[in-house]
Amino acid sequence: MHIEQNSIILRTHENMREAVISHNAAEYSIHDHENFFWNFRMTNIYDAVAMDRMHLQEIGLFPYMLNFTRDMIMQQCGNKILTKMDNRLANITPFNGLKILSKGYQRGVKFTGAEMRDVMKIIIFVIDELYTVDDKNAASISFIPYMTLIDCYIKFVKMYITSRKEQFSEDDLRIFENEIIDWTRAFVKLFKRFSSSSLQLPKLHMWRYHTIHTIQCYGTINGLTTETYETLHKNWVKNPYRMTNKKNILDQMFKTIRRQTIISIPKKIFKSKLEIMKSLLWELPISELQSLQIKLEHEKIVDDLCIEGMNHLINCLDHYLDEKSNVSESEDIYLKIYATGILSNNEIIYATSKFHGHARFSDVAIAMEDADYLTDDGICYGK
User: Fold this and answer.
1) Residue 203 and residue 193: Cα distance in Å, rounded?
2) Do residues 98 and 121 touch, judged by C-beta distance below 8 A?
3) Which domain of life is it from (predicted)?
4) CB proximity list for 283: less than 8 A, separation 6 or greater
5) CB 3.0 to 4.6 Å from 68: which of 19, 135, 191, 359, for a disulfide?
6) Does residue 332 contact residue 285 with C-beta atoms inside 8 Å?
7) CA distance readout (Å), 157 to 19, 65, 161
8) Is residue 127 within 8 Å of 146, Cβ to Cβ?
9) Whole-model pTM over 0.70
10) Residue 187: helix, strand or coil by DSSP?
């Protein structure tokens, strides 16, 4: 884990193609055939795909820690301490929202991310005073105190909590990177001898050297998810595979998928007869619109696109009212400004600064008559 950041060569279509052509695919952990996405020159598929926190930590590095911890305890203290550890995991006092592993941590069992998060909450208390020097096997050469083990887990939990932040400043990223480095060093120092590959783990490498870069490029890793790919993999690979008799597997899977596609009934597209506006933001007379705009610009509580839209709204209303001779200056006109709207085709348009913690403004295309506006073939594009 002593690689200089500037010496890391990121994957691109060109260097991966060269690796395949030169028959060095195994050295780069890729398959020895062309990647379909190499045909799309405008997109670097290796840069677009990033591992999410659940697969890297919750069901990735944390289970590795637990497995290596059990190997270490088994080597220096024997099976009785492992049984004691499982009993502690199973006998944790019930608490609302905390799922207990009733049979302890069974190696080889695939736990969910939620179960691993619950284990993170209690693992330090499980390990605390789990064993002493008196429990050491006579054949064990070295002995790692439980406090050293706890220190490694504390560093992991602190790092994990930081990784769940909704936003990072430059100072936060520096602190986060230092936490990653501290935990990585402690992890490698403790468990390297218990790994058959000396901890040459792809997930460990990605977490150590690519997490900060990913956050700088794409934002917080809370927003990264593999839900779409997991669903596709389950529907089109796992389920058809389980329906086979494990003979001529690919042929049976293709037939199953083809059959499901043929018999599936296309869903009817529901069209609403009414256009509905939702999430009222402001209701005010038109005379106060300028004051609202100044307030929003000063307080900076909304996204810049919202302020820009407010400016366009004021200008458009001025032109509109100038053309309407039947509207008097003293007449009160009230405006209602909404965050979302449902169109007659059931599409939802968003114009909000806070949608699950992030700004969301829909891209729209407005059809207009040529005589009304100078457009590109009758279409005006905007936010």
Assistant:
1) 18
2) yes
3) Eukaryota
4) 334, 335, 336, 337
5) 191
6) yes
7) 38, 12, 6
8) yes
9) no
10) helix
